[in-house]
Amino acid sequence: MSPRSKIPRRVVVRAPHRITFMCAALVTAGMVGCSDQPNAPTAATRSTPMASADRFDLNSAAMTLEWEDTARRLVASHSAISPIAAGRIYALVGVAQYGAAVAADAADNSGGGGRALYEARRGAVAGASTTILSYLFPDAAAALETQLAADGNEGPGNTHPHFTRGVAAGRAMGTRMIAWAQHDGFSAAWNHQAPLDPLGGGWIGTGGDVAPAGFQFPAMKPYYLTSQSQFLPPPPPARNSAAFAADLDVVRAAALARTSADSVMANFWNLSNGTITALGYWDERAAEYIAAAGLDERSASHVFALVNSTAMDAVIACWQAKYTYMELRPSMADPTIQRVLGVAAVNGKPAFPYGLPNHPSYPSGHSCVSASAVRVIASYFPEHAATLNDQVNEAGLSRVVGGIHYPFDIAAGQALGRSVADWAMAYDQRPGGLLAALDR
To answer: For the purposes of burial, counting CB atoms within 10 Å of the CB of 258, is it exposed (0-12), middle (13-18) or buried (19 or more)?
Structure first.
């Protein structure tokens, strides 16, 4: 059964907090609406061992949810991982899990499912997750193998044989995704040359031996797009135009009028290195909806695979645009614009600076990722679409409030993200579904 054909039951969404910034000015400048601020992303915690109430619920997606949570925890605990690198990780894990669940179904000879298929899917998801995450986080490989063993343990030395069969299928799928990762272009070396600005007078990176962030992404292999520039947005406003001046005025005014609540909102959505990142935040929302709707392992892994591979394609398309147009950051166009202060270190917790990203401004990467992920999540859980879209708009607003993006960055990023998502969801309806992308 397609996960979209199963109507999830309605989920009660917690009431968000009201924000205080000047929404009307941003709407006038081209941003789409303003929103309430959602609750802050919580630190991911894994329930181990799996609750016995979940273990034999044939409609449970507990294994997929557990390993998705593990992936987020690993991303957050490795502070060198940037948000765009995290997007690659989440995509590799999600596609591996779904491919493994599909393989478990294809190999099912139990006569129609039941406990045998349930255990095989669980094992497949766990095996795939362990394999790909061990490749991505070799320092965690031993702990991941321990987690896998605990997942299959029904008692001392007792593992269900169909779980073991599923693990083998999952490891094979995990190995397939390792092969994809080894040839996706992510590991390309920087040539120590600054990106070219065709118009002149545009963005300039940190320089020296610091590589521009995401320099390799415009050449990376997408899952679904026909090319990295398939959804290239139109150029941003010319730097000497009235439109550019108007949006720069909005950022300048936002910086001058910034309140403490605005600063909290900007830092809430920053989700930079050392966090689960923006895509991880949207995966947490998807996990909540999946658990409440009672989706099974195959359906849940399908959601995560499509959300995260779509977001990865959106990042590739976004960075293609960034290094095509080389747009200045607002504070480069007007050095008087001050960024919001980051979160200071408290009680031993590390500080989170609100830094100026080392890549061009247009379009907003946060908006590309958020709009693409939410477009897919809302297609499965339409009852949450309004809340999710409000949060996407607020995430975009936060980047203007923070002083690092123009409103036209946000609008272009959201449009690009939605276009990529619509393309990916259509691709998923083709024969072979999203997994057919691996054979291109």
So the answer is: buried
**Phi-psi label, residue 192: left if phi above 0, alpha if psi -120 to 50, beta otherwise:** left
| Neighbour tally for 313: CB within 10 Å | 30
DSSP bridge pairs for 346: 349
Chain centroid, CA 408 distance in Å: 22
Contacting residues for 439 by C-beta, under 8 A, at least 6 apart: 432
Domains of the chain (ranges, CATH numbers): 17-39+52-185+222-439 (1.10.606.20)
Quick check: 121 and 63 in contact, CB under 8 A? Answer: yes
CB 438 within 8 A of CB 102: no
CA–CA distances in Å: residue 218 to residues 222, 363, 382: 10, 14, 32
Per the model's pLDDT, the better-predicted residue between 348 and 8 turns out to be 348
Picking from 59, 25, 20, 55, the residue whose alpha carbon sits closest to that of residue 126 is: 55
User: For residue 426, how many other CB atoms are within 10 A of its CB?
Assistant: 10
Reported confidence tier of residue 201, pLDDT bands at 50, 70, 90:
confident
Q: What is the pLDDT of residues 101-129, one digit of tens each?
A: 999 999 876 555 688 899 999 999 999 99
349: β partners: 346
**Diameter over CA atoms, the chain:** 72
pTM assigned to the model: 0.88
CA-to-CA separations, 294 to 59, 165, 304, 387, in angstroms, rounded:
6, 24, 15, 21
